[in-house]
Amino acid sequence: MNKSNKSQSLSNDLALTIAKSGGVELPAELLEFTIDQVVDESILKDIPVVGWLAKGFSVTRSISDRIFHHKVLRFLIELEEVSKSERQAFLARVESDTGYRRKVGEHLLVILNKIDAFEKTSLLAKCFDHFLTGDINFEYFVDLSNIIERTPLSDLNALCVPSNQRIEFSSVGIAVACGILEFGIASTNFGEDQPELGTKMSKYGKDLRDIFLGHLRERLANEKAQREALFGEEK
Length: 235
Known about the structure:
Layout: H1 3-20, H2 35-40, H3 51-56, H4 63-78, H5 88-96, H6 98-114, H7 118-132, H8 138-150, H9 153-158, H10 172-178, E1 181-186, E2 196-201, H11 203-213, H12 216-231
Antiparallel strand pairs: 1-2
Helix pairs in contact: 1-5, 1-6, 4-7, 5-6, 6-8, 7-8
């Protein structure tokens, strides 16, 4: 199999695995193994739903392949709480639309390979969870995943602090460049007459924070209720 066909096969396998794996209960203990243990003990080959992963790469040849396997496993385990019933629309589409299946799988392969910290994999899975359940569309998931990839882990962790705590980024400039913050009019203090140009949380930053804290679905439901109160039931 040439490199192009191999990549396409892996992307298809990953998309189908996500669609079908709800309730399979991948052993969470996998995360406690070292990368070498996951590979050398052939654990992957003993788990049918991810057996394709062990066959897709020459795992004994490359450290980067082993790291990638570990990222994929973490990603799949984080998605285990999404039930099969909530995956049905996604499953139906990836089974019927090969182009869509390849597009989703290829993006996940690329982004999982690029992220520079295992902890980011869990945050990425939280965003994909919201895509699977229809709270965000695929294009918006792509935007959020690209922000996660290029944002320092410390700044992503800053978004995870409780709502009553102050968010402190390591660098405002980096946060702006990554898309978490944006330039805007800062609120005035101490009775100043003139507003000042400053930074504020971007829509991406707000949505990532609400996804990480588990607040986005409630916020979207409240916003929908407010719209329907003003304009009637949405069709």
